[in-house]
């Protein structure tokens, strides 16, 4: 195998790992898919090491090692991209794709997301439904929907500006809590605790927490701890936003949330 072909395999494997890791795939899946792609394209051995914000990849062909390190950008959740990359790797394993075809398919991986208005509406509706399931009255559910709706609008706007995730979570929690607390001050809700809690439900970092547990159980302890710490910091940022909103409204956190 020529050196340039080995370089191309290394680049494709690194790109596969970055696409998977940056869109919410667990570490075992990232390493497994990357290794399988390299072997399918002709490599003899593929070694992949993951950190929270980077990957290190080594592709071995005829005893010659080629190593690359790539920095990971922002991390999100997009299972459409993860599924598309998995299908590409499976096709390469079946012998239907060569390096050039894999490269083209990775270029065509869909980057589209759900429309912002649909995401905002569905998230707000889910928060309102959670409030209803927890025993909130209809008026409280309506207030929860409005608070979560405007909170999500703030979150989407700030994410488009690539603002720091911690500031985004704090601002979102502040707006949602401020709106819910305002109506609570007016005495419109008979179940303020449920309403206030449900309004910020969309800020619970469930996916990172699940991935952190999965990574830890499967032996990727550094990734598990890193993802758990990131989820914890996001939660603390949301709590700061909630507390600040309660201070602005002059509400006692113990009375409102407990």
Q: Using DSSP, what is the number of strands?
A: 3
User: Low-confidence runs (pLDDT<50, min 5 residues)?
Assistant: none
Strand order of the largest sheet: 1-2-3
How do the SSEs run, as a string of H and E? HHEEEHHHHHHHHH
Distance between the termini: 66 Å
Molecular shape:
elongated
Total separate domains: 2
Helix content class: 55-70%
Global structural class: mainly alpha
β-strand amount:
5-15%
What is the residue-averaged pLDDT? Answer: 90
Count of runs of 4 or more consecutive helical residues? 11
Descriptive report:
With 258 residues, this protein is mainly alpha-helical. It folds into 2 domains: 3-107; 116-257, no CATH class. Helices cover 67% and strands 9% of the residues. The chain is built from 11 helices and 3 strands. It has helices at 3-21, 27-40, 79-93, 99-107, 116-133, 138-160, 165-185, 192-199, 206-217, 221-249, 253-257; strands spanning 45-50, 54-61, 64-71. Strands 1-2-3 form a 3-stranded antiparallel β-sheet, covered by helices on one side. Strand 1 and strand 2 (54-61) form a beta hairpin. Helix 5 (116-133) runs antiparallel to helix 8 (192-199). The longest helix has 29 residues, at 221-249. The protein is elongated. The model has no long low-confidence stretch (mean pLDDT 90). GO terms for molecular function: transmembrane transporter activity. Residues 11-247 form the Threonine/serine exporter-like N-terminal domain.
């Amino acid at each position: 195998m020529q050196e340039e072909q080995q370089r191309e395999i290394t680049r494709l494997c690194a790109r596969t790992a970055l696409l998977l890791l940056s869109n919410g795939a667990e570490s075992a899946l990232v390493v497994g898919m990357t290794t399988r792609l390299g072997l399918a394209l002709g490599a003899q051995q593929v070694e992949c090491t993951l950190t929270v914000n980077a990957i290190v990849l080594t592709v071995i062909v005829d005893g010659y090692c080629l190593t690359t390190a790539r920095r990971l950008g922002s991390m999100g959740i997009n299972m459409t991209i993860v599924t598309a990359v998995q299908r590409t790797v499976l096709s390469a394993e079946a012998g239907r794709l060569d390096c050039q075809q894999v490269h083209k398919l990775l270029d065509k991986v869909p980057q589209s997301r759900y429309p912002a208005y649909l995401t905002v509406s569905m998230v707000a509706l889910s928060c309102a439904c959670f409030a209803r399931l927890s025993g909130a009255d209809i008026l409280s559910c309506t207030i929860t929907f409005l608070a979560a709706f405007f909170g999500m609008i703030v979150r989407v706007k700030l994410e488009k500006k690539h603002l720091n995730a911690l500031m985004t979570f704090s601002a979102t929690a502040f707006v949602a809590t401020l709106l819910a607390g305002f109506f609570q001050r007016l005495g419109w809700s008979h179940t303020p605790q449920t309403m206030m809690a449900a309004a910020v439900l969309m800020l619970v970092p469930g996916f990172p927490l699940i991935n952190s547990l999965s990574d830890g159980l499967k032996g990727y302890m550094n990734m598990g701890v890193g993802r758990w710490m990131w989820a914890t910091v996001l939660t603390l940022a949301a709590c700061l936003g909630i507390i600040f909103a309660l201070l602005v409204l002059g509400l006692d956190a113990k009375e409102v949330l407990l």
